Structure formats: structure tokens, C-alpha cells
Amino acid sequence: MNYEMTAAERKHIDEEKKKIKDVPDSLLQVLTAGTYTDFVKAVREAASNSYDAGATKLEIVIEPATLKKDEKENHEAVIIQLKDNGHGISIEDFYHKFLQIASSKKDPSKRSKLAGNRYPIGKFGIGALAFIPFVNEIKIYSKKKKEKPICCTINARQLHASQKVSWKEGLIGAQKAEYISDESWEQISSKLDSGTIFKITGVTSDTFHYLYNGSPTAEQVKSFVKKPSLTLGQIEIAWELSTILPLAYEEDNGGVYKKLNDGTKPLVSNNPSFEVEFCGLTLKRQIFSQEGCQYFPFNYNHDKMEAKGVIVANPSTVKPAKANGVMLRLNNVGIGSYNFYEQRLKQRSAESRITGEIHLIKGFHNQITNNREGLKLRDKQILDFLKVLLEKLLEAEKGAISLSEASAKNKKETKDKNIAKATKEIIDNVKNTKIIKGREQEAKEKATNTSKPKPIKKKDCKPRQEEHNNPVAKENESKSQLDFEDPIEKFDESGDKLTFNKKHEIFRVSNRGQHLTIEIFLRCLYIAKSAGLSADMYSKIIGDLIALVKAGKK
Amino acid sequence: MSQCHSFHSDNKQKIRENYWDSAFDDLMKNDNKSAEEIRYFELPGPECIYIKQVIQKFGIKLENIVGVEENKGGAIPIRHVFKGQAALFEGNLEDICERDTLGDYFPFDIINLDFCGQAFVFNGTYQKRWDVIKYFFDKNYGKKIESFYLLLTLMANRNNKEGMEYLKKQLLPLKKSIGTTCAEIHLDAVPKIIIEEAHKANYKTKKVRRCHYVQEKHKLGMVTFSFKFEKFEDGLADKQTRDDAYADAISAYLKAPPDKIDDLKLSNS
Predict the structure, then answer these.
(1) pTM of the model
(2) Minimal C-alpha gap between B91 and chain A (Å)
(3) Which of A68, A79, A279 sits opposite B83 (nearest CB)?
(4) Per-run averaged pLDDT (10 residues), chain A, 554 residues
(5) CA triple A159-A163-A169, angle to 5 deg
(6) Which residues in A lie closer than 8 A to residue B71 (C-beta atoms)?
(7) Do A65 and B73 touch (CB under 8 A)?
(8) How far apart are CA A265 and CA A260, in angstroms?
(9) Which of A71, A314, B81, B151 could bond B112 through an S-S bridge, CB–CB 3.0 to 4.6 Å?
């Protein structure tokens, strides 16, 4: 069914437009400069609004997902769509709430029917307008149950350009709202009874670069998503959404969530989760624990304030790096970011291995800062809470230190075992290797039918004293990791010289005239090197080899 | 693009399973193409019924799928199926081909032009629609693809008088009796036109299937075709080879009667 606006409706809309509040230049500058919010936060705001509209599912897609090599940058071609199954909006809502900055009357301390009897989570009172600094056009398709579906357009590019008029005038000139047919809505929404679809067409140059290259801190979250097709910028957005929004948990590597669910259940929330799919990836919340971690349940119940959570000490650095610290959650929504609440731990190495989350269940709603990024730190109740939290953090620090000590002990034991194994392998391999005689020696033996070389008189082989006194040679010997590129000469007490050179892979026992080519020998030496052999150990192995060669092993 | 607003019907599903699925099966079994490498072009429609089917059934990758949707509203739900990974172009296919917007995305192993619309209205629309088919042939040849499928679905009615006369003319050299219904004329004439286009583009026609059906709850009939093409060895074969291949292809399809929709089975029947 098609809907046309009646004269009465048009008049009503004109009245609604007049009610749009003007915005002071200072706030507008901040808004348009993107300093009050940034693109990631704009996506988060839109997602929060979906939740507050009672949505159980939100899908976000970005097109193109990645850029092909040599593909030209085309900001206009970028399309971002957000689709939710919330209660939708009417044309009146569009003018009354959508286009009004800071008109939001959401009270996070009270459940809201509009939000599906959930505690609302949106914070800035900006909603879709948060996208304006970053995009060219926003189209909003929406439908409330049993009401006419609508399509509203905001020409953000026009708004950027309209600097000489007031915010209100600019916005009125850059927006449009109309009804669409039921058939169109069914097609667009895949037959939702109610919901909202944002379609963003075209982004600014900065946003384009952000989407496909990420921000300077993108490396801190790079490990968050293994999916190869997500760009760094998209991974950052996925990180932000998954840590802040109320999402379902994913099994963590350390098994902390599973264990907690079996027993103490400290991960309690007062708000249900909803499903968010971002670029084909279903986002989940995680406790960033590792195998072999220690976890410390946290329970706080004091002075009408209640909080529950867990702190985890990992055996190695928390990944991604941004998950280092503790995240507070109010109404199942992340407050600010992971941090140590200005109480740094004593040992930095332990600090890099601590992560965790704590749900603020009762008594904290008025203790959150206005921008909902942290706690009001001057309040005595909060300071008491933080004291208890710090004690738990220190306990976790001790856990991290003991894990680290145990790990270092294991590493040393493993290293010693490896060295012993490597040495044995070298000796075994040398024993099993043929000794190939030099051609000259072979010819001689053939002629004389002797296989044994003549012994060399000691007086004929004098050690090269000048080399022993050579500071360069001495320096080489004192190196803890010997360089196989340099030729090394070793002597034994009889004056026999064993020389080896990586390039020729030949080990020559010079006084006998034999050429010892041992193919496998170098590999053994590399095993020894990788096991971290010291110079002393190395010399010992060479000594053993000389002994074997002398013994004429075949 | 499509005249049909709803694509949920048994007859349409029969075509999907018997004609379209067969193309994927054949390429994977006989042409050693893996599901991960097959590149597919389609006019998906807002519900993306067949896209979802090939992904689930064959494991075709989203990154290897390209679609065009004329209706802006229709493109919105398609994006949520494509998830930014398959390429979607909004607009009229004829204009998109004229601008060579799809150029970088070739070659395609399977091209599914599910027009469900007229192709022989003797004015600009007719001409452009055939330019689309020529475009796909030329582009695929340019990328040296050895074999590929063309799936084509047209409306069997509503062509104008000039269009119908054009079709009938195609049958005269074949000395084929001209059918009495629009659908029959389409079923006989369209393959000849396609085979000729293929030969001009240096592809010989290896397989032709054709079928007429009426989609439930719709009055208008459709004619649907499946063609498999193979590049002539060495690209430009000599005239005799080409003439022989052409004659073989024409006689082969004329010998085999069109499929009857009632004879095609559904997988769950």
C-alpha cells in the first residue's frame, strides 16, 4: 500500500521543524570537528540507540569490505548500513527526537519500556547525528508496528557546506521525510514488523582512510579478529562494539567464563545481551584469559553498593594490548576502557598480564561521570570500592608474578634439556658419518696398499703462536655465540689442527692430509647454536669430535 | 529489472535445481573447478534466494560473487546478504555494461542473466539487452577463460511485432517450422542467436538446454536457457572448424526437444 502525506500531516511536520532546537556554535564546532565523538563512537551511538529501541539484533555492513590492490580510493562509493529489529520511529519521532541534539531523556538507572524493559545504554543524546561530520548522506528507513513506514534523508554534505547559516536552518534545509509504501518497506527490511535501517552513502576522506587503514593505535587491537577480510579500521570498530555493548560471552582460552558459570557466578549483569553482526562477524564479549591463567573472583557488597566480576592473571602479555586492565560494566555496558583506575601495580611485567571485568550491579548509577566514561572519583563510597578493587588487583599481581617465576623455571629446565639433547645428537651423528679420504691420500694408499697414514712428527706441527696471541682470535673465542661464517681453528695437545669452514663444509685434519666432509655436521652445529650453546660447550664438542676423528671412526 | 516480484515458487525452484545447479556441478566435476574459485555473476533480487543456495550447497565464496540490482530499495537487503564481501552494483545492467563498470571483475565461470523480462522489443531496450550478452562474451574471452556457462531467462511474451518478426527470421535459414506460440518461437530462435554471438566471440557451444514455464501465481510465461561454451583451441580456429562447430551446435539443440517443466524434479519431492 502506498501512502501520501495529507495536508494536515504536512502542516504538522512544518510545526515539528520549527521545534528543532538550535545548537550553540561551540557545541556545533565540537560536533563537526569530531572531537566530541569520532566515527567509532558514532557507530557505537547508533548501536546503542538500536538497543534502546528494544532491538534484539543489529546487523552492520560496510561496502566495500576491503580495497583491492591498486583500487582507486572512492569515498563516494562507500556504503554503510545498520539494520535493527527495534520498535522503529515515526516521522514525528524523527523531528522530535532524532534531529534534536541532547534531547534524550534516557535514565540509565531505570528500566525503559521502549527499550524492551531494559536499562537504556545510549549516552550522548546525539544518535544518528553523530555520523554527520563523517559522511555524505544518511537515509533512515523505519517502521513502527502497525504504522506507516517512513524514509528520512539527511544531506550531511550540504550541512558541512552550510557554514553561514545556523545549525537549525542548515538542518531544516538538509533534511527530508516522507512515507514509503508497505511493499517498499517489506523489500528493504526483508519483511520486518518494525525496525530501522540506516543507509550511509559516501564518507569523508579521513573516514575513508580510517575505515581501511585504522588509527595510529590500531596495532593494539590487531590480534582481536582473525578474520582476514576485515581491515584495521573495521577491527577497531569491532573491538569497540564488542567491549562496550551488551553482548553474549564467548568461551575464553583460559576457561574462566565456564568455571565461573559452574560455581560462583560473579559475572552478573542487570541487562540482557543482544546480537550484533558486524561485516559478517558475530561479535561476542570475551574475558581475555590464556591457558594456565589464574583468576580471582571479585565480590563487593557494601553500603548498598554491589559489584561482581573477575580479575585474571595471565602467564603472558594480554592480547590484544587494549584489554590490559579492568573494564567496569554498568547495565552490561562498558564504562570507558580497560584501566587500573590510576592505581598502577608495583611490577610492570605483572601489569601487562592482568585483565578482567566487573559488573556494577547496585548503587553505582549516580556514580558514573556524565559522559559515562568512568567513575566519579571524589565520592567516598567510590574510593572505598576502589580500595577493595586495588587489593584484588594486587592479589592478581602476585599471581602474575608467581606464574612468571614458574614459567621462567620451566623455560630454563627446557633449555637445559635441549642443550643436552643437542649435544647427544651431534655426537651420535658424527659417529654415524663416513670419513672420506682426500684424493691424494687415496692414490697413495692404492699405490702402496696401505690404509693407515704415516704418523707426523711433533716437531713438524708447531702451533701458530701468533694466532693464539692474536687479540682478534681471542675476542672471537670469548663470544658466547660463535659465528659459523668465520673459519675456526682448534688445536689439541698433539698439535693436530681441526679446521672447519662453513663455505666449503670441509673439516680438515691438516697434518694427516685427510679431508673430512661431514654433510650432516653443519646441521648438528646449527642445532647446537639454536640451543644456545656457550663457547665452552662448543669447545667441548669440538674436542670430542677431534677425538673421534683421531680414532679413525668410519 | 525483474518483472516478477516474488520468486518463491516450485517451478522457479525446479529451474534453479535442474538448470542452474547443474552448471555448478558440471564445472566442478568435469572442468576441475573448485567451489572456492568459481566466479559467479547474478541479478540477485532483494531476497537473494539463489545466492544463499549456492553458498550453502556448493560453498561458493562471497568474494567471488558479483551482482547488479536496479532497484535502490532492493539493493539494501542484498547488502546484508553480501556483507560487503560480494560486489554489488546499483543501477541498470545495460548502463553498467556500457560504462564497463564490471570490467575488473571478469572472468566469470557462470553468468546468470535472470532477466525475466522482454528481450525483443524492437527499440533501444532490445538492442541494449543484447549488447549486455555480447559484453559478457567479449570480456570473458579477453580474460581467456576456457569454458563458462550462460544462464538466460527471458519473458516469453510482450515483445512487440517487430521483435517477433526478428525472431521468426532467425528460424528461416534453419528450415525449421515456426511454432505457434511466443514461447515456442523463443525456444527455437534464441539459442541460434546466442550460438552465433558465441561463435563471433570465439567460443563454441557445447551444451544447450531450454525450457518454458509459467511461474505460479503469475500469468506470464518464461523461457529459460542454459548454455555451456568452450573457447576454440588456439583462440581463433580456422573457418571450417568454426563452421562445423556452429552447424553441430545448431543441429544438436534442434534435435533435442525442449525440457518440460513438469518433468523436472525438485530435490525434496
Answers:
(1) 0.78
(2) 13
(3) A279
(4) 83 78 60 61 90 94 81 86 95 81 68 83 70 91 94 88 71 87 94 95 91 86 80 92 93 90 77 93 93 94 92 93 94 90 77 93 86 81 91 92 86 80 72 53 59 47 42 41 43 47 43 44 57 63 64 50
(5) 65
(6) 187
(7) no
(8) 5
(9) B151
